[in-house]
Write a structure and sequence with these properties.
Helix content is 39%, strand content 18%. By secondary structure, it is of the alpha/beta class. The chain has a five-stranded parallel β-sheet. The protein is globular, with a radius of gyration of 15 Å.
């Protein structure tokens, strides 16, 4: 059984993330969407809130599960008995960062592959950071995120 990890901060999840997830779900028997604890990115939502925001958007994928993780991604992948890590590439600007991370992960755990997946062209410019900025200033983000996420972004942070 081929199992991959699709890691990310997902703060918030976007339609681009969900597009990459759908592609991974077609390629692998099992996909774990892994929400990272990453306080350095100053997240808008807690990891647990992100999981709850994501859950309604993954119900159509019977082979997808969701969890949180902290620490080294490759250690988490080994713990989960995954054979691959999925990373989304929106544009050339993502490649250098992702390439370096993939090489480091290969150095740390050479038997775990990194697979780069491109989302549909319509999502190539969408990022969680930009979505949060648009929402912060009252802009309409419904084209970029699921309805429950747009509603959560419209609510002022606690």
């Amino acid at each position: 059984m081929q199992h991959c990890i699709y890691p990310g901060t997902f703060d918030p999840i976007t339609y681009g993330h969900l597009d990459v997830l759908s592609r991974a779900a077609k390629l692998f028997d099992r996909v774990t969407l892994a929400v990272a604890h990453n306080p350095g990115k100053n997240p808008r939502f807690t990891p647990e809130e992100r999981v709850e925001l994501i859950r309604p958007s993954i119900t159509q994928h019977e082979n997808v599960e969701i969890t949180t993780f902290s620490g080294l991604l490759v250690d988490f992948a080994v713990e989960q008995k995954a054979t691959a890590i999925i990373r989304g590439l929106r544009a050339l600007s993502d490649f250098e960062f992702e390439f370096n991370m993939a090489l480091m992960n290969r150095h740390l755990k050479g038997d775990i592959e990194t697979i780069f997946v491109m989302p549909a062209e319509a999502y190539s410019y969408t990022s969680s950071h930009l979505v949060k900025q648009v929402a912060r200033y009252g802009g309409d983000v419904t084209k970029f995120v699921p309805p429950n996420v747009a509603a959560a972004l419209a609510t002022p942070p606690a």
